[in-house]
């Protein structure tokens, strides 16, 4: 197959949008910095814990709900420490209301999306870490938008807090519940916004009231294969699940599907992923979007199985994903029979394989589609 040259933007933005970086938010601060911030505003240090309890335990930044603080005090603290960072401008629902996709406008007009999915035994939020994406993968709606900017820690956490509050309030069918799982598989390449993503993870796993008290094992961080960042994540000592968006087992094809592969090859990416397993003991997920007549050949399933087994057994789980096509795209999902054969070949190699649930396909479920549609308009 002839390689298609694709422009690749790997340089992070020097500013966070046309108006500079987002205003300082309570979430951007460490517990010690929160104490300093309320003290600088003339309040007693214990106010920081009260604010943290409201935000992380009661999931609110509404001053009217903070009845344990004097009204003048809470109004002033919220005004200074809880600026409005994102506004829901469009919401779409599917699966009887248990899948909810939200298009957010950030403080500077940047657009991101998140998808909340409730299952019988868990609730999962797919969160965005960047507005747009610089990886330029041609089958991805977000990749075709280009990179607008990185999100701040608070902008990411706010997506999580809003989803958790929606679940707690019983807005999703099935009654009130908790947010149990988080996946960084929304818009953007998480490891290209490494600092904010890791600060978000630390905030999410911190015990209440300093954080949301989530389990690190229920948080998945995905990447298209930024090898140095995978190595850095390996050394963090936080047992999140690593997911590698591979999509092809051979460099010739992956160079076209995932342009960063021209810098970090399939073997380099898999070596880094295997090292993550060796150090953390956490099984790695291999994400593989099945694209009709492009990467869904049975021989490529055999090649993938061979490459994964060459590094060891029991270290990986493969998730083939029927491609959620974008409007007007030449890329489309594999035929069901081809998908079944691909899965069978992987399983024949002893690779645990689960076809990924394709929730939200009727509401432009692939992240970036709503934002791209609005940008086009």
Automatic annotation (TrEMBL):
SUPFAM superfamilies: Radical SAM enzymes. Keywords: 4Fe-4S, Cytoplasm, Disulfide bond, Iron, Iron-sulfur, Metal-binding, Methyltransferase, rRNA processing, S-adenosyl-L-methionine, Transferase, tRNA processing. GO terms for biological process: methylation. Residues 1-23 are annotated as: Disordered. [4Fe-4S] cluster binds at residues 133, 137, 140. It holds the Pfam family Radical_SAM. InterPro entries: Aldolase_TIM, Methyltransferase_A, RlmN_N, RNA_MTrfase_RlmN, rRNA_lsu_MTrfase_RlmN/Cfr, rSAM, rSAM_sf. The active site is at residues 113, 367. Its EC number is 2.1.1.192. It is an enzyme of class 2 (transferase). Its cofactor is [4Fe-4S] cluster. GO terms for molecular function: methyltransferase activity. S-adenosyl-L-methionine binds at residues 188-189, 222, 245-247, 324. Reaction proceeds by a ping-pong mechanism involving intermediate methylation of a conserved cysteine residue. NCBIfam families: rRNA_mod_RlmN (TIGR00048). Belongs to the radical SAM superfamily. RlmN family. Specifically methylates position 2 of adenine 2503 in 23S rRNA and position 2 of adenine 37 in tRNAs. This is Probable dual-specificity RNA methyltransferase RlmN. It comes from Cellulomonas chengniuliangii. The lineage of its organism: Bacteria, Bacillati, Actinomycetota, Actinomycetes, Micrococcales.
């Amino acid at each position: 197959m002839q390689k298609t040259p694709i422009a690749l933007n790997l340089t992070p933005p020097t500013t966070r949008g046309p108006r500079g970086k987002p205003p300082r938010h309570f979430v951007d601060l460490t517990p010690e910095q929160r104490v300093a911030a309320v003290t600088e505003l003339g309040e007693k240090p214990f106010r920081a814990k009260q604010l943290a309890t409201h935000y992380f335990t009661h999931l609110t930044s509404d001053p009217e709900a903070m009845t344990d603080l004097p009204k003048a005090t809470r109004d002033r603290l919220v005004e200074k420490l809880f600026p409005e960072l994102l506004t829901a401008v469009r919401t779409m629902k599917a699966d009887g209301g248990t899948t909810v996709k939200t298009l957010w406008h950030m403080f500077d007009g940047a657009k991101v999306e998140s998808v909340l999915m409730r299952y019988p035994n868990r609730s999962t939020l797919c969160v965005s870490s960047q507005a747009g994406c610089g990886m330029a993968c041609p089958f991805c709606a977000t990749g075709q938008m280009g990179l607008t900017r990185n999100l701040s820690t608070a902008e990411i956490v706010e997506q999580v807090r809003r989803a958790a509050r929606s679940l707690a309030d019983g807005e999703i069918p099935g009654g009130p519940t908790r947010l149990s799982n988080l996946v960084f598989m929304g818009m953007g390449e998480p490891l290209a916004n490494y600092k904010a993503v890791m600060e978000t993870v630390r905030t999410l796993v911190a015990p209440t009231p300093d954080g949301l008290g989530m389990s690190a094992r229920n948080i998945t961080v995905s990447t298209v294969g930024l090898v140095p960042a995978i190595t850095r994540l390996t050394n963090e000592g936080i047992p999140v699940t690593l997911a590698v968006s591979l999509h092809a087992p051979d460099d010739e094809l992956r160079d076209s599907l995932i342009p960063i592969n021209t810098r970090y090859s399939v073997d380099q990416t898999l070596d880094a992923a295997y090292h993550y397993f060796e150090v953390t003991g956490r099984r790695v997920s291999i994400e593989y979007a099945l694209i009709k007549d492009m990467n869904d050949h049975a021989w490529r399933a055999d090649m993938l199985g061979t490459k994964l087994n060459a590094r060891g057994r029991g270290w990986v789980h493969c998730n083939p994903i029927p491609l959620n096509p974008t409007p007007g795209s030449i890329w489309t999902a594999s035929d069901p029979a081809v998908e079944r054969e691909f899965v069978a070949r992987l399983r024949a190699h002893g690779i645990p394989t689960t076809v990924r649930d394709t929730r939200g396909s009727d509401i432009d479920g692939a992240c970036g589609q709503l934002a791209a549609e609005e940008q086009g308009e």
